[in-house]
Amino acid sequence: MSSTTPTHPLFLLSLQLLTSSLDHPSDRDRLSLRVHGLPVVKAARNVHVIGNADFAYPRGSSPIASLLRGASILLRLNSNWDWFINLSAHDYPLVTQDDLLHILSYTPKDLNFVNHTSYIGWKEARRLKPIIVDPGLYLAEKTGMFYATQKRDFPSAYQLFSGSPTSVLNRKFVEFCVLGSDNLPRTLLMYLANSPSSLLSYVPTVVCNSPEFKESAVNHNLQYASYSASSSDSPRHLNGSDLKDMLQSGSAFATQFRPNDPILDRIDREILGRRRGSVVPGGWCVGERNNTCGEWGDADILRPGPGAKRFERRITELLKNGTFRTQQCLIE
């Protein structure tokens, strides 16, 4: 199990497998046994492994279904949470769980941290105009994605925005997408069902076309990413030479990493204070020095560290003097 799996008792976590990367039903069972084998998870009962793996193409539209499925499950399990953060196996934390909880507890709960732009150049048009059929929406086995010979014009009923797969969303907005009476989220879902890489557009477009949430958008997803000069379609893989820039960014997370890259061990050791095979320690850990999380205290006691100061600086810069409102949902 990766240390990206939060184990703080105050977290509520849904783990979802995609059959594009995990092709055997036993993988789900192994993950569930490993996660629930952690004493803190067993006691807090706050980590839920979704029963059936979703069949999703990262470059198709099926990832939106997985996102909304995870959100709806968390709403059904417990509506007493403030922030929804969707992460993938390519992402990694740059702050401890105490750092994250401490700073977000003081952050206004009516904001949504979403990368978004309405700019559509030739690269964006190449991604948004094709019509696809994603087999992940109706087939149980892996097969190729279908492309139609025709392309379609951009919609005129709403303005398309594009961003990144990861966002930090407030609960009210998540409820709007999953349970709300407004038809915009469902209309957009049907439009994007036939668009490539549509997860990049769904959340930004819903936020920026909704009068209720348009002014809640902060144009940053609190995640560090770096793009190579040759390609801006997806972030490059990070390594040890990027650590200084990652920390200076003040971001809570970074993407993307190769599995088992040595930089992950370095982040565990130097940033998160996590030992191999253990959980990230926090204020709730009151055990002996060599096994601090072997005994638990009050989960509401937080011990924020240097990561909280970096993260606080980033949040303060984003919200300072309300200047973030000048960057909200601009039509370019």
From TrEMBL:
Q: Which GO terms describe its cellular component?
A: membrane
Q: Where in the cell is it found?
A: Membrane
PANTHER family in alphabetical order: CORE-2_I-BRANCHING BETA-1,6-N-ACETYLGLUCOSAMINYLTRANSFERASE FAMILY PROTEIN (PTHR45719:SF10), GLYCOSYLTRANSFERASE (PTHR45719)
What keyword terms does UniProt attach to this protein? Glycoprotein, Glycosyltransferase, Membrane, Signal, Transferase
Report the coiled-coil segments.
Answer: none
Q: What membrane topology is given?
A: Single-pass type II membrane protein
What is the protein named?
Answer: Uncharacterized protein
Signal sequence interval, chain numbering: 1-21
* Main location as per UniProt: membrane
Q: Does the keyword Translocase apply?
A: no
A GO MF annotation of the entry reads: glucuronosyltransferase activity
